[in-house]
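Repro case for the chain-ordering regression, as requested:
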Amino acid sequence: MEALSPTMEEGKIAAWLKREGDTVEAGDTLAEVETDKAVMDLQARGHGVLRKIIVGEGATTEVGNLVAVIAGPDEDISHILSEAADATGAAAGAEPAALTATAPAPTAAGESAAGRIKASPLARRLAREKGLDLAVVAGSGPGGRVVKRDIEAALPAGVPAAPAAVELAPGGYEDIEPSQLRKTIAKRLVQSLGPVPHFFLTTEIDMERAAEARDALNALGDTKVSFNDIVVKVVAQALITHRECNAWWQDSHVRYFNDVHISMAVAIDDGLITPVIRNANRKSLREIAVESRALAERARNRKLLPEEYTGGTFSISNLGMLGIDEFTAVINPPEAGILAVGAMTPKPVVHEGSVTVRRRMRVTMSCDHRVIDGAMGARFLQTVKRMLENPLAIVW
Amino acid sequence: MSSELAVVGLGRMPYGEALALQRDLAQRRIAREITRDMLLLVEHPPVITLGRGFKPEHLAAPREFLDARGVELFEIERGGDVTFHGPGQLVGYPIYDLSEHEQDVHWFLRQLEAALIAALAELGVEVRRNEGYTGVWIGNRKIASIGIHVKRWVTWHGFALNVTTDLSYFDLIVPCGIAGVTMTTVQKELAERAPRDLWGRAVDCTVLGFAEVFRQRPQMLSLEELAVRQER
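-- result from build under test --
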């Protein structure tokens, strides 16, 4: 019986596909062997004639035992058969039900067990686990086969069975049942990274002029505008130009939207939620600033209504305020894209022929490849970059 | 490592047809005409199948009686004893090339169990393995059965998960050849906690379970798409 699978210890002959007297070629399926709830093919390792079937259909035998003899048509196989019979007799007391012939399955190709140590798979595994060389273990099983008890006997007393595991101090960790929200997030993200073929596009944007514009606007008083508001406004406007990125994957079709509804990832105590700024393409920067502040506030107080956090067409996630330079975000299905916005950091750059320090921001767009192709996403990102680098485009 | 899993929903399909289909796909996977793993999901009209480990006494009802109830009977090459498939049971045929994973059928059987356990957990059913008995159990109640065939490290046949199965059919057999086994369904276990679209949820959760356990990206395909993609 061949170990058809590394952890197989015994196999049951489910069916013989060849009969005694049949000619077999290497690779022919001799029998079907069942182990656990799997049926596998037992293939011939050499060619010749199937002279004798030793383990009949429905019988179970250990790996390493003789199940049949393939030999030349006139070759004398009596010694193999008698050896098999002896072994069967010797072991009969211990395991009356199983056939325990021990000769390695001989083949006409002469692939005998020469040089190979006979050991049960369990013994092999144990030896491997304990770092024991099988060659130094005396086998006490049938035909000198190394079995489990030999390995156990060969191990020095007192040696731990496995390297002692690093003990975790009590209190070293805490198991917390995930909240329903955390579970829902987990499920949605798995749904996303699982079936959605993501790809990512990153670009670095010069934010000097956007910063100047923001300072100028905020100097006007009442409403404060954040960089994120500017990004929302620019993305919404760019998506109108690049409608192909403002879409939902719907399995049977792709739904392209006329208006842009921006899902804005907001961190809350035990997770995140994405309130939606509806028709962001039709709103002024000031309106977006007011609305995003109100939505974020309501999100943190868990006051959002379902219609306020569903139905977005594109997402923006900003971890800049947490000092993250650059990251990739997971698409929020069925939306086809999300823009991950990093921190604005002063960097030395070549500007108009000389090295100066300018505020730069890295953004990464995750695209659902079923909807957006590389060049398509890149063109959209280029528009976003151009607009942020020349914020007057917002009023263009 | 085959990181893509083509998930093919066959809907309601007679056993014989699905059997021919999976044998054909497995052959093509062996011949490497198809280069990715597949998971066929199907629901069968009532049928009893006899695996290689079949013992005649485990078929409790006479064949005439089966005919009268419209139950088909097949003798097939998978491992395991006798089992029943029928409406409300989600049957999955994973056609995997284990040479791209682990060349170990026991590993694969444990993975199948893990995928189903993950799916059931997602549905809200707490389950565990029953040491020595392949399949998925809740205490001594069996909710899913497993039996596979492996040739050149390519698997076929697979699992049967009772979602809303009419369990009275199991009285016709001794399930899996284990006397005294009680079968159960997801619906029975969840009772009033069962979601409205239980079947759809069960399908989704099973696909997610496979994605998680085999670390594969599932892609829902129709048979036509699978064929077209192969030709490319």
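Ordering looks correct now. The longest helix of chain B spans residues 105-123.
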